[in-house]
Amino acid sequence: MLDITKIEQGKLDMVHESASLLDIVRSITADLSGYSDKSNVSIVLDIPENVYIHVDVSRARQALQNLIDNAIKYSKNPGRVEISCQTNGNFVKVILKDDGIGIPDSEQPKIFSRFYRASNTADSNSGGSGLGLYIVRSIVSQLGGSIFFESKEGVGTTFNVTFPIYEIKLIKSEF
Ligand code: ATP
Ligand code: MG
């Protein structure tokens, strides 16, 4: 069954486990290094080694990979993408900041819609189906997280994604 159908039916199989956020992000940026090099985009990671998230790793990876792919695709030349994180209670916020083409104000409410591509993507001669963010948002919400962004056309875009942090629950003895 296609991912998109599974997502719409809420049927993604999720197996949650503890995983290093830095390991996940490093493996994605390594996979995309040919693309980022060719696009003249440098990727800077600022994520501590000890942050473990509680997620289905392949789904969290899929979501982050889509966002990093977008950050490279909608970059300028040269471009810079910075990926950092902030922990807050039981969540970690992953911050993906690019200095790319940005998203026009009037189109910002639409970019999570299926097949929507902003009008300024035409200038970046990039192909795409407009499904990426729709899938990302569905995955993130099924992982118990949330997503939002800020963007200014011609200046850049910052996506914030939250994931639950892995925690070891201490069971208090009744005695
Ligand atoms: P694909 O399905 O291959 O990912 P896509 O990249 O066009 O295609 P989405 O990832 O859903 O589709 O993104 C939707 C639109 O949001 C993009 O077409 C682009 O207009 C805008 N967008 C997303 N991320 C960024 C970004 N980092 N900077 C500027 N625009 C962006
Ligand atoms: Mg995309």
In summary, what is this structure?
The chain has 175 residues and is an alpha+beta fold. 29% of the residues lie in helices and 27% in strands. It contains five helices and seven strands; from the N terminus they run αβααββαββαββ.
Q: Major beta sheet, specifics?
A: 5 strands, mixed
The first-to-last residue Cα distance is: 51 Å
Radius of gyration: 17 Å
Q: Helical element count?
A: 5
Bound molecules: adenosine-5'-triphosphate, magnesium ion
Low-confidence segments, ≥5 residues, pLDDT <50? Answer: none
Can you write the helix and strand succession as a string?
Answer: HEHHEEHEEHEE
Strand tally: 7
What would you call the structural class?
alpha+beta
Spatially, the strands of the biggest sheet line up as 2-4-5-7-6
Beta-sheet strand percentage? 25-35%
Average pLDDT reading: 92
- What is the helix content? 25-40%
Shape: globular
